[in-house]
Amino acid sequence: MPTQETYDLYDENDVRRDFGILNIEQWAADNSGYNGGAGVSYTEGYEHTGFFNRKYIPRQGDANIGDQNLTNPNNYRSIRFADVLLMAAEAHHENGNDASAQSYVNRVRARAGLPAITTTGGDLGDAIYLERRLELVGEGHQFFDAVRKGKAAQEINGFQNGKHEVFPIPEIEIQLTGNRWAQNPGY
């Protein structure tokens, strides 16, 4: 679930914040007069943060095109063009081509109506990392980005370096190999 910290990372002029994150408590307060004064209601979910991933909220009138066992009928998007552009920006930055990296990240920012970034070096790497976090909020990339950048231990509660970079191998998979596979470290 999005958190206050994530919500606050967005610039006030960044339209992606309100497209990606619903401040559900503010929304309920703003709509208190709806429905003849009865207002709106919602049920707090597990680990309620006051925010909801707006990208995947089911909406009245949605066509029933998805998996009924999921929470909404949206088709799953395995990759988005913005993700490809930000991967290219990161790759160019890692190879020392900051001009190309800026070009790719600025295509994403331009679509969001934001000014171009002009930073270089380590600041550009940090800007690309932040841009991925803001653009891809709620899509499951933050964990893997943080692990890849070596920032997971400082950003994810309970993360243990040397263990959580990989997942445990299911015991049945180890048994099916005749116990020739070793369990990943720390599990």
Concise structural overview:
This protein has 187 residues and is mainly alpha-helical. The chain contains nine helices and two strands; from the N terminus they run ααβαβαααααα. Strands 1-2 form a two-stranded antiparallel ribbon.
Strand content: under 5%
Sheet with the most strands: spatial strand order: 1-2
From the 3D structure, determine the CATH topology of one domain: Serine Threonine Protein Phosphatase 5, Tetratricopeptide repeat
| Helical stretch tally | 9
Q: H/E series, N to C?
A: HHEHEHHHHHH
Overall mean pLDDT? 89
Second CATH tier, the architecture of one domain: Alpha Horseshoe
How does this structure look, described?
The model has no long low-confidence stretch (mean pLDDT 89). Among the domains are: 53 residues, no CATH class; 75 residues, Serine Threonine Protein Phosphatase 5, Tetratricopeptide repeat (Alpha Horseshoe), CATH 1.25.40. The chain is mostly helical. 16% of the residues are buried. The longest helix is centred in the last third of the chain and has 15 residues. The chain has a two-stranded antiparallel ribbon with strand order 1-2.
